[in-house]
Predict the structure.
Amino acid sequence: MLRQILTLAALVSLAASGPIAAQPPPAGASPTPIKRTVLQKVDVPTANYETITAIAELSPGVNIGRHTHFGPETGYVIEGDFTFLVDGKPPLALKAGDSYQVAPGVPHDARSGERGAKVLAVYVVEKGKPLATPAP
């Protein structure tokens, strides 16, 4: 049964990402600064929230762009390195094995290193709200 559920989840994930992944970027275009692959969504009991677990891949040598989340974000750096830029805090250098957190609504950005980075991120999001929104 578990194998069937995992197979179905993998197929749904592939189907959802297929059209996007199949289109190469135009010649001379900059790489996408961040790619999020949602691994799972889980409802928070007795609340109008869900947790979203995702892999965030940061392209090498880019700023991903200032943004906010409607709920908290936590993450664990799987590989690579980046500087985490959170409003009101000094820049934080993170590398594989480090973790971080950011409070709801706080604007933040990340500047990746030469190799980029891969992060396991967990977001708590109010249902019906976007995962992230641009910050001024």
Observations:
- Residues 31-134 form a domain with the Jelly Rolls fold (CATH 2.60.120.10).
